[in-house]
Amino acid sequence: MNVLRRLCILVFACSFASVGSAQGPTHGVATNADLWLSASEIQTLQAKAAEGDAEAAIKLFSYYEFYKDDYSGGIRWMTIAAENGDTYSACNLAKMLRREKDDFSVRRASFWQKKCEGG
Questions:
Q1: Which pLDDT does position 74 carry in this prediction?
Q2: What is the pLDDT of residues 86-109, one digit of tens each?
Q3: Which of 92, 116, 88 is nearest to 1 (CA)?
Q4: Residues 6 or more apart in contact with residue 72 via CB below 8 angstroms
Q5: Which of 56, 60, 71, 83 has an alpha carbon 20 to 30 Å from 36's alpha carbon atom?
Q6: How far is Cα 4 from Cα 16, in angstroms, rounded to an integer?
Q7: Cβ atoms within 10 Å, residue 52
Q8: The pLDDT of residue 45 is above 50
Q9: What is the pTM of this model?
Q10: If you write DSSP's letter for every residue of 63-115 in order, what string do you get?
């Protein structure tokens, strides 16, 4: 998936984020249904992400960040996507961490920004 497509997906998902039930989306914007994952899908994606699949980690990021509204879960999976070599994720992670106020997050943001820029 190219960077522009990912950016469009994330921007679109951000603009329509809403919360659904544990059984899946029951209300809100219908496009959010694409972000819902079953327990078995989550388990499969977690295994793939642990084995180095950046796309799986990005799907988990979208689920936690936008569907579950779980910022720390989103950070976790964006970090794994970046660790798995996805440059776009490294750039996005740098931006996310830059918003944090603690020194450690600011230093990590700088680290990921260098990776984003190819360093």
A1: 95
A2: 999 999 999 999 999 899 999 999
A3: 88
A4: none
A5: 83
A6: 19
A7: 12
A8: yes
A9: 0.72
A10: IIIIIS--HHHHHHHHHHHHHTT-HHHHHHHHHHHHT--SHHHHHHHHHHHHH
